[in-house]
Each structure stands twice: as C-alpha cells, then as structure tokens.
Amino acid sequence: MADSAQAQKLVYLVTGGCGFLGEHVVRMLLQREPRLRELRIFDLQLGPWLEELKTGPVQVIAIKGDVTQAHEVIAAVAGAHVVIHAAGLVDVFGRASPETIHKVNVQGTQNVIEACVQTGTQFLVYTSSMEVVGPNVKGHPFYRGNEDTPYEAVHRHPYPHSKALAEQLVLEANGRKVCGGLPLVTCALRPTGIYGEGHQIMRDIYYQGLRLGGRLFRAIPTSVEHGRVYVGNVAWMHVLVARELEQRAALMGGQVYFCYDKSPYKSYEDFNMEFLGPCGLRLVGTRPLLPYWLLMLLAVLNALLQWLLRPLVLYAPLLNPYTLAVANTTFTVSTNKAQRHFGYEPLFSWEDSRTRTIRWVQAMDGSAQ
Ligand SMILES: NC(=O)C1=CN([C@@H]2O[C@H](COP(=O)(O)OP(=O)(O)OC[C@H]3O[C@@H](n4cnc5c(N)ncnc54)[C@H](O)[C@@H]3O)[C@@H](O)[C@H]2O)C=CC1
Ligand SMILES: CC(C)[C@@H](O)CC[C@@H](C)[C@H]1CC[C@H]2[C@@H]3[C@H](O)CC4=CC(=O)CC[C@]4(C)[C@H]3CC[C@]12C
Predict the structure, then answer these.
(1) What is the span of the domain harbouring residue 48?
(2) Within a domain: 133
(3) Does pTM top 0.90 for this prediction?
(4) For ligand 2, is residue 107 a contact (CB within 6 Å)?
(5) pLDDT for 173-213, tens place per residue?
(6) Does 159 participate in catalysis according to the annotation?
(7) Ligand 2 mean position to 43 CA, how many Å?
(8) Transmembrane stretches, by residue range (predicted)?
(9) Which CATH number do you get for residue 190?
(10) Is 281 domain-assigned?
(11) How far is the CA of 221 from the centre of ligand 2 (A)?
(12) Are 43 and 17 in contact (CB under 8 A)?
C-alpha cells in the first residue's frame, strides 16, 4: 500500500459494490476512509445512486463488469491498492443453477485473486459467510461459537459449498508473490445473517405479511437462535480490515473473522419482528403453527413445483428444504477475534441498528407489492 507521502492517494476496488452489503461498504469507505483518492465500484448491475457519489472529493468510478470474465477483472483491479471482493450470487432459493453459482462465487473469486497477482495489488479482503461453517447437512447446532470452535462443516447446497471453496482459495493465496515481488495479503470476513437498509429478504417478508392482512405465521421454534449482524457494522468491519491489513499483515494475513455486533440472539422470525412489529405486522403463534414434518413436506412440494415450472416461470419461494433446515438450526457466534486483531468495535449499537432498519421498512412503499 502507498507509503505515508502518498497516503492520500489510495485506490480501492469494491466488487459487488451495488449490492445490499456492497452499497453500504462503498458509502462507509467514502465517509470513513480519508486516504481514498479513487474508489472503483465493479458490478454486473450498476445502481443509479452511484451518480450522486461523483460530486465528492474522491474519484468514484463505476465499472459495469462480470467477475467471471478474467479480463474485465484484471482491468478493474490494475492499479488498486486494496480489493474488497463482495460480489457473489447469494442464492439459496434455486434461482440460479449450481453451475452458475459456482462460476460466479468460485471462478469469479479465482479471477480476482489472479488479477491481484498479475497486476501487483497486495491487499484482498473477501466477503465470505457464516455458511462456510454451517449449519451443516446434519443440522448440528453452532451455539455461540467462534473462529476456533470445532464444527463438522459439511455442505451439499451449492451456495455454502461455493462460499467455502472461494474462502479456501482466498486464504491459500495469502503470501503469494504479486507482480513486483511483494506478498499478497488476504483475509476473509464471515458475516452471519446480515440485516438492515436494503435487505431484500426482509422486504419480501414484509410484503408477504402485508398480503396476509398484517400477519405472519410462526414456522420456527422460538428456542432456535440465529445470529444476525447489522449491515452498517459489517461494512465498517470491511473498512477497518482493509485499513489495518498492511500494518498487521503477519497477524491478519490468511485469517478469517466472523462479523458480529450487539444484535440479540433470537429466532430468525422473532428477530425480524423487531423491525416488522413496529411497522404493523403481527407474528401469529407462540410456537410453530404446523409440525416440522408438514413444513418440510410443503418445502419439498415447493422445490418440486419450482422444478416443474422452471421451463415456464421462475418460482422461488422463501420456503424450501434448505431454508427451512437452516432456519431451524441454531447458529450463533460469540467472538472478539476482530477486536483482538484489529481493534474492531461495532460502529452502530443494537438500538441504532434497530431504529435505522425500522425507518427503512417504514419508508418502503407498502403498496408496491
Ligand atoms: N446477505 C447476507 O445475509 C449475507 C451475505 N454474505 C455475502 O456478502 C456478499 C454480498 O451479499 P449481499 O449484498 O447480501 O448480496 P447482493 O446480491 O445484494 O449483492 C451481490 C452483488 O454482487 C453482484 N454480482 C453478482 N454476480 C456478479 C458477477 N458475476 N460479476 C459482478 N458482480 C456480480 C450483484 O449484482 C450484486 O450487486 C456476498 O458475497 C454474500 O455471499 C455473507 C453473509 C451473509
Ligand atoms: C419460510 C420460513 C421457514 C422462514 O423463516 C425462512 C427464513 C429463511 C429465508 C432464512 C433463514 C436463515 C437465512 C439465511 C441465514 O441468515 C444465513 C445466510 C448467509 C448468507 O451468506 C446468505 C443468506 C443466508 C443463506 C440466509 C438466507 C435466508 C435464510 C435461509
């Protein structure tokens, strides 16, 4: 990375910079990384909001590109001091084929790594996922675990499998010599379920509740804890890691860090109601209204229907065998590795994260179904 004389001249690249998390990372960099000279935003789909960012002191360059195309990635990476690789196909609903998920999440990540090596970019932060760890296919709970907690990470679903392979590529690339002879320094951040402004699943659940007369029907036992983390804190952790990676390369290089904050441990549904309740929705039932076997039957029927309808229309409901299994398996983290290694503290309190998310839901045009 640039020496002190050029410290105001840093060039960052954010892949997936127009996504839910990516947009927050982009805005956080512009607000809290004073050394930025140029910020490149690389994405398959560029958002109109990017235009408003071009009036500030940092040169913002929007690059429409595909991480599966190596030459496009090389062109975007060339000259960057830091790459934050957040682009990915986040699909557990069967929208994309397993091959496409692998091509984007694994081959795309390999392209980013090779671009760093070929062009001399030394610092790479990868947005991994808790799903790299679990829940595993056996439904083993991961109860307030940390980065060193033993857990049998066994995946069959294409999404978690692709994230695990990509993370492995990133960590194994740590220490490779980049063009110019310096070592590549990599690390991976593992967010748990991210929530906050722009969360599409939260939006979908909200509209589903509106369609059902303001009611949602409990499907998950309240005893199942699911770790969640506010998107602003995940973005902040990305900014901090990117900043500290040079000074603490020996400690941080090749490491993984769970993303965490003070968001409470709750079931996925009860947690969502922290935001949807104040927006007028009600969660019916103190325990699941249907037995698990019946929910699984409905989930399997959804998967069958998706397969049958695929030639005609994409049918991708929230409930499928994978999402039901994940939602029903406790997965929470309790760690301070990021605090110990690079001084991370959540930027947003739980109260602030909750308020911001509620305001975002309230601002949604409820009539736009
Ligand atoms: N949403 C969540 O709860 C969690 C997400 N993550 C990870 O965070 C990252 C961002 O996820 P989200 O913001 O939730 O998803 P998102 O779908 O909102 O954002 C992903 C972005 O990547 C872009 N993209 C997809 N394929 C691309 C390609 N071939 N070339 C270039 N850009 C491409 C999309 O256009 C999108 O803007 C992903 O890597 C995901 O695995 C990790 C843990 C939890
Ligand atoms: C239909 C009901 C059973 C409903 O409760 C289903 C909820 C379900 C859609 C979500 C429950 C757990 C979520 C996943 C979890 O937060 C971990 C994730 C990490 C990622 O990297 C991407 C998103 C996700 C897989 C997330 C997706 C939605 C859930 C399965």
Answers:
(1) 4-199+229-264+334-351
(2) yes
(3) yes
(4) no
(5) 999 999 999 999 999 999 999 999 999 999 999 999 999 99
(6) yes
(7) 23
(8) 290-309
(9) 3.40.50.720
(10) no
(11) 15
(12) yes
